[in-house]
Amino acid sequence: MGLWDDIAAIKDKVDSFILSNLEDVSNDSLKKASLHLIKAGGKRLRPFITVTVCKMLGGSEHEVIPVASAIELVHNFTLIHDDIMDQDAFRRGTPTVHTLWGIPMAIIAGDLLFSKAFSMIFKNVEGGETFDERRSMCAHLLANAINYLAIGQAMDIEFEKRWDVTEDEYFQMIKYKTAFLFGAASLCGGVIAGASSLQMDLLKDFGLSYGVLFQLTDDLLGLIGDPKKTGKPVGSDVRRGKKTLPIIYALSKVEESEKTILLDVLSGRKSEDSDVKLAISIIEGSGAIDYTRERVERYASDARKALEKLPQNEYNAKLQELVEYTISRTR
Amino acid sequence: MGLWDDIAAIKDKVDSFILSNLEDVSNDSLKKASLHLIKAGGKRLRPFITVTVCKMLGGSEHEVIPVASAIELVHNFTLIHDDIMDQDAFRRGTPTVHTLWGIPMAIIAGDLLFSKAFSMIFKNVEGGETFDERRSMCAHLLANAINYLAIGQAMDIEFEKRWDVTEDEYFQMIKYKTAFLFGAASLCGGVIAGASSLQMDLLKDFGLSYGVLFQLTDDLLGLIGDPKKTGKPVGSDVRRGKKTLPIIYALSKVEESEKTILLDVLSGRKSEDSDVKLAISIIEGSGAIDYTRERVERYASDARKALEKLPQNEYNAKLQELVEYTISRTR
């Protein structure tokens, strides 16, 4: 089986566990709103990491599915709330939850996925519940990741009003907002498999490095991605003035006249297609793309090094494949 | 010590545990927004119940404080999100979180309190963490309560557009939205104390009955409460068309001409002070106040009966006192 067959197989199991655990939501609008994004698609990369890490270390898929599903629910809860905050109208090719059900119901739908994550994490695939040390450690890891996620989201919102965000601030923000949940996904797989402390350190390195490179490739795709593949219009991050690494880098490197043009587009004062094209070419000319690619390569190398020290088997190979696939999307 | 000294003593311990666990929030706005309502006041009734139940059953206050604090954080998270949904500008005598920091930061502040609740529940007062069966059962109970809370909030939002809400629907909604968190507060005290199954059933009865009577007295105060004591303007629930028990009862009992007047005020078509006064007198004339008081008495009797079968000691007496105090507010 190739990587995509594995990803699809885990997605099936996770989705069916999630759906069965949301069956009892007696309010119809809330149920539909909560499941909307889950049903709209997504690859379930975080559960894939949790399950594959667990199996790499000899753990049981059966036992890890509830934890992997909880992590996916947390991811989806943050998407629903982030879309409200960013006033995004589309995601996964479909209108966002607040666009369809209004902001109040979207806030509750996010909250429900959040609480369902923490009731689900103690459930078993075959029914019943388990309240052992491993499950509680996973719940604690997940809650900690969300603590940081909230701080990262607050930073991101504050960055919107600023044009002097530094690279250090940017990396802090994406670690909090994106990488720590990947870190928790990797660590939870280890907890369920009963990993050693040394292995837990490596799993943390792997998860965090993968999380950062994932976000950096996302930044590249938001700038130079093929709209047919990304589902976003050309230069969408530029139009929205998002503080991504290539944009932060370009702002710090280009000369004053180019910076003025860039800021006009980033702040929305100019928004013609030709303005956006010019802005992208200025960013490219600054060396920002190469610089970001070099950073991606550095984090990929860290992720690979962590995997090298973990058990070498077919599951380890799949995690390596995931790293290579993620990088390849921006080439 | 009287009831209020005990409540104040537990509030001090819970607040200091909460504050120490939010110290590490590195984003200043987020930290202030998250702590705003906690610092603004509140009696900490839920933690009081959790701690007092635990001590009634011989459990340790030390061990239960983290769980009690987690429950209080969950309550505060729901207040922040509810205020956004209800577009409320004031709470606890101060502007609401979204009024001061905007909706995006208020959503995140609520999310942060939510995740902090689930990281806090595994912490110890003296530092370090405990991942045993009791803590995970509390986390699970709390998550389940929030699942229902979300459904209750969704029902409440849907009730806004309806004038034919039945009494059964109303009781379902307040059980989900208010009583289940009181139920979890009571049950978690039992879990930490190592209560028997029989005791857990009684604790559930006590918590749920208290939660319902708490909401019913709140409904009465929103209608006939002294504005100086409640902090709300006269007839605030009537002006906002809230579906409280007295209002639902009156709508189902009064004759058509009075119903028209009532609906004019409830829907906001008429909002002069004299209109509101007339509406309140119609509700009073329908027997709705007496009917609601009779319901309060019935749930108070259930709460007392549960307490009678639990160990008779000073802590049990304090819980009885809490029931009597809560009822007395509406007399």
Explain the overall architecture:
Two copies of one chain form a homodimer. Chain A has 331 residues and is an all-alpha fold. In chain A, 76% of the residues lie in helices and 1% in strands. Chain A contains 16 helices and two strands. A two-stranded antiparallel ribbon of chain A has the order 1-2. In chain A, helix 3 packs antiparallel against helix 16. The first copy, chain A, is globular. Chain A starts with a helix and ends with a helix. At the A-B interface, helix 4, helix 6 and helix 7 of A face helix 4, helix 6 and helix 7 of B.
Name some characteristics of this structure.
2 strands; 16 helices; mainly alpha; homodimer; 76% helix; two-stranded antiparallel sheet; globular; 1% strand; 331 residues
